[in-house]
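pls design
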């Protein structure tokens, strides 16, 4: 089996030698061999671990969270790769949608136009949009839906796109962590940020109480997993994991 020096591995992976030294110091990626002359040598196992590190870094996971994930006894490389593949495909679809809306957004931003109701459901076919909107009005009342839409339109296009993008990124990261403990620090950090964004999107005007609203949303996902797709397909697994992670968040808040 071939061993790779720090310089060779750095060139192969597209990272700096200094980065590999940092990973070694953190215990995130230790060499398989350290020679008498203190040279670091890496084998196939370390190459696979570095691949996982770089995938998680691409999704903006902090290094300390990556360390916790990879050192989890329940961590499975094949399962993680499947999750990475799904997340990357979802990210590709999201980027394609964003690119398609940027030109339209640039024009409307120059004219300082507010969002229209149709823009709130960007990417959803017209027939589904109208059906989901009617369904929401039947469940929660027409005034509730109209007030929510008014709040979202007031946010403005640029901030709305930023929040939507971050919410999608959080969902991708949570999807990658579905094989871990929902009470773990990496998961709870994502849930906390998700809570903040949802409050922003609601305008903070929630009669039943903010935490209760957050809990009911997690129950809604289990009742209707259209709202928790993985790679475009409704996922009960993600819905149940979000419900469990939300329950853990509420225990400490």
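designed seq:
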């Amino acid at each position: 089996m071939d061993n790779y020096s720090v310089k060779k591995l750095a060139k192969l992976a597209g990272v700096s030698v200094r980065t590999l030294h940092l990973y070694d110091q953190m215990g995130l990626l230790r060499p398989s061999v350290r020679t008498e002359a203190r040279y670091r040598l890496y084998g196939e196992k370390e190459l696979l671990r570095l691949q996982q590190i770089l995938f998680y870094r691409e999704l903006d996971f902090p290094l300390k969270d990556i360390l916790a994930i990879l050192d989890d006894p329940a961590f499975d490389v094949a399962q993680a790769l499947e999750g990475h593949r799904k997340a990357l495909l979802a990210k590709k679809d999201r980027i394609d949608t964003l690119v398609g809306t940027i030109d339209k957004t640039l024009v409307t931003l120059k004219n300082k136009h507010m969002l229209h109701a149709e823009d709130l459901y960007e990417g959803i076919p017209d027939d589904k949009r109208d059906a989901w909107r009617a369904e929401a009005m039947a469940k929660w009342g027409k005034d509730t839906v109209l007030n929510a839409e008014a709040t979202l339109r007031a946010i403005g296009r640029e901030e709305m796109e930023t929040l939507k993008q971050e919410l999608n990124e959080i969902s991708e990261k949570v999807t990658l962590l579905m094989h871990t403990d929902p009470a773990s620090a990496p998961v709870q950090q994502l849930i906390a940020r998700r809570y903040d964004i949802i409050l922003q999107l609601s305008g903070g005007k929630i009669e039943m109480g903010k935490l209760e609203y957050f809990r009911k949303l997690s129950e809604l996902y289990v009742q209707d997993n259209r709202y928790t797709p993985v790679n475009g397909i409704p996922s009960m697994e993600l819905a149940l994991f979000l419900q469990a992670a939300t329950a853990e968040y509420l225990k400490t808040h």
